[in-house]
Amino acid sequence: MDRRKALKNMGLAMGYTVATPTLISIMQSCKGETVAQWTPEFFTQAEGSVITKLVDIIIPKTDTLSASEVQVDLFIDKFSQDVMEKENQDFFKMTMGKFIDKALKDSGKENAQDLTPEDLEPVLASALKHSKEDQAKMSESITTYNEAVAEGKSATLDEGTSLFAFANNLRGLTIWGYKTSEYVGEEVLAYLPVPGEYIGCGDAQELSQGKAWSL
């Protein structure tokens, strides 16, 4: 798939909302760190390693930079730590734990930091490969689970639904973080600095070269 076309057609309605100043603050703080300096705040070091590999599976390097090259992994870590509500943090951690356990079991490895992209990709693909009907059923199960937890009741979520929940959430955060990066905003989407030239009567498709406008 042409990633430029995919990005052009993707909206930001991923189920995540955050005030613009907070989002800008997170993106700026990510920009100031290098990968070598990155110490996860929300994830453990091993979990952070897994996240880095997973975001590059979701958005690999092609004619544009990979997700980790624009520090989407750092963005997800900071967003999870600073923006997510406690119940969402707990759910994300729980489902991620089950995802990593599945990858370790399938690969025969003992430590999460030893998992390779080749170990993680089939687990991610399987977790997302469900019919719309099955996804709807799993979404209902997730809602029921979260409602029960919010009411202080005991609740469980089966492995398949947990893996889907984590993979789906991570995919959404990865795409969102990638689209809101400075690189994509200026190099992939149609970018017009403000203040800039005012063109009162111009064809939108011609001015943007067919790309979605950078926000």
Q: If you had to describe this structure to a student in words, what would you say it looks like?
A:
By secondary structure, this protein is mainly α. The protein has ten helices and no strands. The chain has helices spanning 3-9, 20-31, 45-58, 72-82, 86-107, 117-128, 132-150, 159-179, 182-188, 204-208. Helix 3 (45-58) packs across helix 4, helix 4 crosses helix 8 (159-179) and helix 7 crosses helix 8. The longest helix is centred in the middle third of the chain and has 22 residues, at 86-107. It starts with a helix and ends in a 7-residue tail after the last helix.
Overall 3D geometry? Answer: globular
Helix amount, in percent? 55-70%
Distance between the termini: 24 Å
| Total number of beta strands | 0
Identify low-pLDDT runs: 1-24
Structural class: mainly alpha
Largest sheet: none
Number of alpha- plus pi-helical segments: 10
Would you list the SSEs in sequence order as H and E?
HHHHHHHHHH
Write down the overall mean pLDDT.
80
Main traits of this protein?
single chain; globular; mainly alpha; 215 residues
Brief sketch in words of this structure:
60% of the residues lie in helices and 0% in strands. It is an all-alpha fold. It starts with a helix and ends in a 7-residue tail after the last helix.
Write the layout of secondary structure elements.
Blueprint: H1 3-9, H2 20-31, H3 45-58, H4 72-82, H5 86-107, H6 117-128, H7 132-150, H8 159-179, H9 182-188, H10 204-208
